[in-house]
Every structure is written in C-alpha cells, then in structure tokens.
Specification:
The protein is mainly α and about 350 residues long. The chain has 17 helices and no strands.
Amino acid sequence: MLVAALLLIGHVAHRGGLFETAAVVLARVPGPPAVLLVACLALVALVTAVLNLDTAVVFMTPVLIVTARRRGLAVAPFLYGSVFMANASSLFLPGSNLTNLLVLHGGGDRSISGGAFFSRMLSLALPACALTAVGLLVWHRRALAAGGARPSAQRAVVGEPELRAAAVLGCLAAAGVIVVESDPALPVLCVALALLVFGLARRRLGLRASIARLGLPSLCGLFLLALALGTLARAGGFPASLLHGAGRPFTAMLAALSSVVVNNLPAAVLLSARGHPDASALLLGLNVGPNLAVTGSLSALLWWRAARSVGARPSVLAYSRQGVVLSVLAIAGALLVAG
C-alpha cells in the first residue's frame, strides 16, 4: 500500500511538472559535466529516500535523460546512473524500498520509526551512495570529459503551477509521515488520494491513467510470489537458516545473489522469514545487489520502461557490466566503512 501511494504521489508530481522543472534547473548547473552528473545523482538519492526507489526510476530517469540532452552530453552516464543510484540510496528510510518493510516485518521490527531506521542504516547507506557515484564518474569519465553544449537560455514552462505546488506539499507531507510514523502506509495513502482528488477536480489527471501508472499487476504478482515463498520459507526454515551465525559479508553476498535469481522482493521474504540478527547487512545486499542484473528488482524493469518512453536505448549487457563493478564496490566499501 505504501509503495502504491508513493507512486501515485510521484505521478501527480510528474503531471504537475515538478520533475520537468527540475530538469530545467539541473541543466543550468554550472561547471563541467561531472558536476552535473553528481547533482543529478544527488537528486535521485533524495527522491528515492523521501518517496520510493520505484517512483524515482519512473520519473527521474526521463528527467536525467532530458537534462543530458539539453546540455548536449552523452546520455549513458545519466541513464544508468539513475537506476544504480536509486537502488543504492534506497537504504535510508523504511519506505524507500519495499524490501525494507518486508525485512522489518519478518524480523519483528515493524514498529520501528523512520528516524530510528535512518540512524541504524546511515553508516551503510552513505558509503554505498558515495561509492556508487564515484564508480559512475570513473566508469563514464571519457564520455563526461567530452563535454557538451551550454544549457539553453530559455526556460520552458511546464505543468500547472497549482498542481505542482500541491505535489510539493504532498511530497513534504509524505516525507514527514514516513520519518515520524512507524506504520506510515495509511497516512501516506490519504495524502496520495487527496492529491489525486485535487488533480481530478481540476481535470489535470485522469483516473484510468493514474491507476495504470501504479503498475498494479506487477506489484500484485510480486506480492503473491513473495507471499508464496515466504510461506514455504517459514515452514521449512530454508534458506533463512543459512544466515543464522553467518558473517555480514556472507549475508550481504547471499542476499545480492538471491535478488538476481528471484527478484529482491521475494528474496527479502525468503531470507527474513525467521528474522535475522543482522538485518542491516541483509538489506544492503537486497537493495544494492539488484545492480548486478536487471532481474534483481522491480525498479530495474520500471527504469527500462521509463527510459524507452523518452527514446533511450538501455542495454542488459551494459547494465550488468557496470552493475557488477558498482554493486561489489558499494557493498564491500559500505561494510568496510561501517565496520
């Protein structure tokens, strides 16, 4: 419910022109292309942490692609940077990634507040994000060094100002609820429905299109798969039993590989079915591990669709070539920094 509510808020923000306006502003960031890429990645991280990584990839991927084109830059660093940073930055708050909520539920920590979760995960989340950004800068250094045209002096007017203002308020309200409440799903859903009603009343949103944006079949399918695997895992104790007594590196590695094999949502249920003494390492593997391959998370599939919608051509091979290096770097570095 929380993921669907956040996706709906993101849809209203998109229709209001909030993300398109962000692209106009980002294209004017002074300095070399590397500075622009860092600014874009920081925005992706912020949207992911406050809203949700699925919302971030759906709406920020086109923003980053348009931003690169406005500056005459190679699209690849921004295209792949959007999904890799979204996965890496989904460790900050419970609502940033559905896997966080599944692991908390499986471990009996469903009452933990967003602030407490943030404090617990900060030592892993910050290094993971920083190392992912550094890895992207190094990997795409030649494309970034090629430079591009200066940003256009004309600023486009996008969206409806009142809907955009409502979306800003909705994002702030949702962020506040997620940080303060231990179970924010219902309040955030109320915020999302209020924004939807506002947009429908002003005839700036369509009900059918808004529902379609949620991708309910995909969400429901993954939910049912996770439910089925979780039931089996609780009955048999496997593979969750492998993690009891295991060290943090093994836990993170197994979580990352499991994500690629069965997707990180079912993997989260499987590996946390009987709780786990080190949920932070488990989440590190479940959230950053999907950077290994496009099969790792729903966010990668949504990213692929969002990129194709604006004429980009993502590649499965290019994704994994970069992702293997970036995910290993981020996971190993975060564990080392966190001790």
